[in-house]
């Protein structure tokens, strides 16, 4: 079934590419694109089978995201982000899953994970709760979050928040699930790259969140979640730090892969008007740049796919995932993004002045790749430092490992 999704997506690529400029101008994806992606099954790939999902091997999902991003980086990015949330929702309490998908399994969920919200425990009557949350209780939530990609197309949102104790100090870090009726979207997205992602702000003002719509980030990092009781397949034993971070790395790699192909198409028959003239394709320096860029892209794809596949094999076999493998996956994920950015920088530099024109596919890939690279999950130095700590035998504690 996952291969059928890829086949269906490939039929959509020409139209998606043709709409990419309109998506940039509108600063969000057309509803038509979202509908086509939904019909193709993109958003169902990591969804529990109980709700009509495919529970596909994750590497197949990232392959779809890369191909979409090669046609339109913003489409690839939104597909990766909205497409990964069904996996995380599958870890929530079964009651939360039923609230989201019970009436319509095609409902989409957006996110903004930075802990910018404030959660105050309350009891079932809404009164402040001094200790743990009792049955029927939950939290009052307030906050403002940025970078909620594709939020205009979603009916729910996953938001990061800190639990505030009796003394007003943070005591826990949670992800909470909030329905569209409980938040508003502020149209603030006006950026240099990934312009079509509609990554606007989400604002919540003192709403009640029942305890079953919350998940402790520590538990998730320990590969635990209440949803595992009903979603027992291997997909829901994968680490968040592998599943989610790969979903925001794949679009960057895909965008550069698309830029690489457009570069070859544009430059293959071009003649230089300077530097002695001649065919661009005959230029030694251009040939070297192409070789380096192609190698960087191949390395990015091969390493990231290898790690996801290795972790998948472990969970299928009900074997523990070694910390060294989890760290290696994060190392190669951020290095994959870094390699992709290096590749598009090489191509952009050698393409000449024409690549500066707004809307040129090389220029767009350059902007989009750099924009995607600044996502916190693609922060190379932080992830590489964790890998180094692990290699030296030091303790590594982080929710993104």
CATH level 1 class label of the largest domain: Mainly Alpha
Strand content: 15-25%
Specify the overall morphology.
Answer: globular
CATH-level-4 superfamily name of the largest domain = Butyryl-CoA Dehydrogenase, subunit A, domain 3
Low-confidence stretches: none
Domain count:
3
User: Structural class of the helix and strand makeup?
Assistant: alpha+beta
Characterization of this structure:
InterPro entries: Acyl-CoA_DH_C, Acyl-CoA_Oxase/DH_mid-dom_sf, AcylCo_DH-like_C, AcylCoA_DH/ox_N, AcylCoA_DH/ox_N_sf, AcylCoA_DH/oxidase_NM_dom_sf, HsaA. By secondary structure, the chain is of the alpha+beta class. The chain has three domains: 2-98, Butyryl-Coa Dehydrogenase, subunit A, domain 1 (Orthogonal Bundle); 108-215, Butyryl-CoA Dehydrogenase, subunit A, domain 2 (Beta Barrel), CATH 2.40.110.10; 238-391, Butyryl-CoA Dehydrogenase, subunit A, domain 3 (Up-down Bundle). It has twelve helices and seven strands. It has helices at residues 2-18, 20-26, 31-40, 58-71, 73-89, 94-101, 217-221, 240-267, 284-316, 323-350, 361-373, 380-391; strands spanning 109-122, 138-148, 156-164, 170-179, 184-186, 200-210, 214-216. A seven-stranded mixed beta sheet has the order 5-6-2-1-3-4-7. Strand 3 and strand 4 (170-179) form a beta hairpin. Helix 9 (284-316) runs antiparallel to helix 10. It is globular and about 75 Å long. The protein starts with a helix and ends in a 10-residue tail after the last helix. The model has no long low-confidence stretch (mean pLDDT 94).
């Amino acid at each position: 079934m996952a291969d059928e999704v890829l086949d269906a997506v490939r039929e959509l690529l020409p139209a998606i590419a043709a709409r990419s400029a309109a998506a940039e101008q509108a600063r969000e994806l057309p509803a038509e694109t979202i509908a086509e992606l939904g019909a193709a099954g993109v958003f169902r790939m990591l969804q529990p089978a109980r709700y009509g999902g495919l529970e596909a091997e994750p590497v197949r999902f990232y392959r779809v995201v890369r191909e979409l991003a090669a046609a339109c980086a913003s489409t690839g990015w939104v597909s990766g982000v909205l497409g990964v949330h069904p996996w995380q929702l599958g870890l929530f309490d079964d009651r939360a899953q039923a609230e989201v998908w019970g009436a319509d399994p095609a409902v989409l969920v957006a996110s903004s994970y930075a802990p910018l919200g404030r959660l105050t425990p309350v009891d079932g009557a809404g009164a402040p709760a001094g200790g743990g949350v009792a049955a029927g209780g939950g939290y009052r939530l307030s906050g403002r979050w940025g970078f909620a990609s594709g939020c205009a197309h979603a009916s729910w949102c996953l938001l990061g928040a800190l639990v505030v104790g009796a003394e007003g100090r943070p005591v826990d870090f949670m992800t909470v699930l909030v329905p569209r009726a409980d938040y508003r979207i502020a149209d603030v997205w006006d950026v240099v790259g990934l312009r079509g992602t509609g990554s606007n702000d989400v604002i919540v003002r003192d709403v009640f969140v029942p305890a079953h719509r919350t998940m402790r980030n520590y538990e998730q990092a320990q590969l635990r979640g209440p949803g595992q009781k009903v979603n027992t397949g291997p997909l829901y034993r994968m680490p968040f730090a592998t599943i989610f971070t790969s979903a925001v790395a794949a679009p960057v790699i895909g965008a550069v892969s698309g830029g690489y192909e457009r570069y070859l198409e544009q430059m293959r028959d071009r003649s230089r008007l300077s530097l002695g003239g001649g065919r661009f394709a005959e230029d030694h320096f251009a040939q070297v740049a192409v070789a380096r860029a192609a190698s960087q892209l191949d390395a990015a794809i091969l390493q990231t796919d290898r790690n996801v596949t290795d972790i998948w094999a472990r969970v299928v076999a009900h074997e523990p995932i070694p910390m060294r493998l989890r760290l290696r996956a994060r190392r190669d994920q951020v290095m994959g993004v870094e390699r992709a950015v290096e590749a598009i920088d090489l191509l952009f530099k050698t393409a000449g002045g024409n690549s500066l024109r707004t809307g040129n596919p090389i220029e767009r890939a350059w902007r989009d790749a750099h924009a995607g690279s600044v996502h916190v999950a693609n922060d190379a130095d932080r992830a590489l430092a964790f890998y180094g700590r692990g290699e030296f035998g030091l303790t590594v504690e982080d929710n993104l490992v």
